[in-house]
Amino acid sequence: MTRRRMSPVRSGFYLQRYVAGGLFALLLLSGSSWPASGADTKPLNAILIVARDDLPDSNFADSIVLVMNSLGPGPVGIIINRPMPIPVSRLFPDIERLAQVRDKVYFGGPVDFGSVWFLFRAATPPEHAIQACDGVYLSADRELLLQLLGRNKPMDSLRIFLGHAGWAPGQLEAEIERHDWTSKRAEMEAIFSGKSEYPWPAPQDPTHSI
Fold first, then answer.
1. ∠ CA(46), CA(121), CA(186), 5° rounding?
2. Which of 39, 164, 173, 187 is spaced 20 to 30 A from 72 at the CA atom?
3. Residue 164: is its pLDDT beyond 60?
4. Is residue 98 within 8 Å of residue 92, measured between CB atoms?
5. 8 A C-beta contact, residue 162 and residue 45
6. What is the DSSP letter of 43?
7. What is the 3-state secondary structure (H, E, C) of 60-123?
C-alpha cells in the first residue's frame, strides 16, 4: 500500500516520547496539535471499512475505519478499534476527575499523529463539530472536548483519537476493489459497541518493544 503513514522509526519515537511523558505536554501546549474543525457543515457521506484478515500493513491490520468523503481531496478516516496503552487522564493531567477514568486514547491512524480528534454522540447537532452519521459527530475543537469531559460521566459515548488515516483520490476505491477492505454502513452502535478491539501497537509490532 502507498497510503501516507508514519514510519516504524517515527512511530517508535512517538511511543518513547509517551513513556517519557513529553509528547502529551506538547499536545496540550501546542495549538497546532488541534486541527481546525468546521461548524454548520452538512452531514458527511461516511462508511465503515473492515480490513481483511491478512492485511500486511501493521497500522491497519484488524482495523475498522470510519471513512468520510468530504474532509479533503481524498477520503479521510479514523480507526475506531485500536486502543493505545495511554489513559485519557494522561492527556488532561489537570482534570482531577479523570484520574479514576479507565478509558484509553485510541490510535486514529498514522497520519498527523500529533493531532487530537474525538467522536461523540449527541441528540442535537453541536457547534464546532461535523456529522459523521446519525447521532455521531466528529470534532477536533479543544473547547468542545473540555466541555464534554466536564460532564458527570465524561467518557460516556466519547472516544478520543490521536492521528487519522488518509488516501489519495481513487486509492481507497482501488484497495476495496482488490478486497483489502469490505465496507458496511456507518452506524452509531457499530462505532461505540466496543467489540473487536485490537491494541496498538500490536504485540508483534517491533515498535511495541521500547
1. 25
2. 187
3. yes
4. yes
5. no
6. P
7. CCCCEEEEECCCCCCCEEEECCCEEEEEHHHHCCCCHHHHHCCCEEEECCCEEEEEEEEEEECC
